[in-house]
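hey so i finally got around to running the thing on that chain from the lab meeting. sorry it took forever, my laptop kept dying and i had to restart like 3 times. anyway pasting the input first so we r on the same page abt which one it is
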Amino acid sequence: MTRGDNFSRRRVGWSLVAGLLVAASMPPWGWWPLSFVGLAMLSRLELTTPRARDRFVLATVAGLGWFVPALSWMWFLTAPGYLIAALIFAVLHGIASAVAGSVDRDLRVVALPAAHTLVEALRLSFPFGGVPLATLGIAQVAGPFDDIARVGGVVLITWVTWQIGTLLVRRSGSGRAFRVARRAAVLSVIVIVFVAFNAPRGSDLGRAIDVAAVQGGGPQGTRAIDTDPRDVVERHLAATQLLIDRDLSPDLVVWPENVIDVPDFETSTELSEVASFATRLDAPFLVGITEDVDSESFTNAQVVVEPSSQQVVDRYDKVRRVPFGEYMPLRGLLDSVGAPVDLVPRDAVAGTGPAVLTAPNVAGDDLRAAVVISWEVFFGGRAREGVKNGGELIINPTNGSSYTWTVLQTQQIASSRLRAIETGRWVVQVAPTGFSAFVSPSGHVYDRTAVSERAVITREIPLRTGETLYTSIGDGPWIAAVGTVLLLAWARRFRVRSRR
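ok and heres what got predicted. didnt touch it at all, straight out
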């Protein structure tokens, strides 16, 4: 073995450590400072590796160290899909490193964070509509830069985190362009943090409601096709009875995602049972249901059951579906090569309506609630749409009972925190087997339940109005800004070549 081979292997080993440190900054581990340590290690390797091919290898290995642990929940959904997704995301970061590292050496300090941020932005929509889990935003919502979410969401948090990691790397012998780029990066981070701390946060309407979130409990690691749906209903009816036993009088009761699975909810016994509780408590129920469309498809919706009429008065059908969980992408192709497509025997029909529900006569007035069903909470645009349509709080009914461990569930709590900060709204997360919780507009988590326990949590939730900067402008301007930084770095490279 030559000295060069040994040196290369050592660098690859350090890149794997860098990725593992980033993974450890994610929930459920949650050591958020390790994001900066891991990214600084990777940036040092990238900045001192001249060949694009070597940078591609280093960043890809770091990506595998990051995504293989942090996306491990996907193993219980689709083992092949998990391995493919981790590899795709790692390779994308490898490409980003190879491309951005090829600009002028002095400008790599800003080009590399920009390129990696664009990869993370791509994950918001690719593949299969996006898999925005294990993002730096999910890690950093527990840290001091969480306020940035109300300005630029996860895209801006990602750029700030990556840029700080790169700035931590000491460089010597660099030219004037490096010093200018570094100062501009430092100033940009300072300005963003200052703006985030002082940015609009929304405001209270001066009206609050008592919300009850019902968690029926039961085992984790179960699939719908292997369980009796009636068992889930019984657990939630029993948990709801606790409200009456404790003489509680909530203004609104929320059940989790798809806890009622029937051919037609409005003609079902389950509607009568829910309506009976709604009448006894004199409170509307927001209930997660699935209904048959035909032998090959179904709907996943959250409906409002009103106490006086005992009928469904509003409905939101889930728009963002879980690939390989609620529908099977490329079903025909996968079936032809012998993939187990029968694990998802039917595909969910995507909704098309705005992400908001109206519950009449809640504490004397109509309530507008933004709704993000389960998977949708990982997409900032869904909560943003609901708030722009008048949402005074956010409801996140979810169902993580299919997954063993708590990797997905803890990342979902972190995502609820991001959505709360981004929009300036309270978030009510409720799951059949955990975690259920209330999240304040500042991102604080209250009353989080344990996994598998039967529980009812209640809290007075102030209703809110007004828009944050993120609600007003979304992700687009920040993606464009980061892309512009990368383009300018490349433009300088071509100008220098032209002079030569």
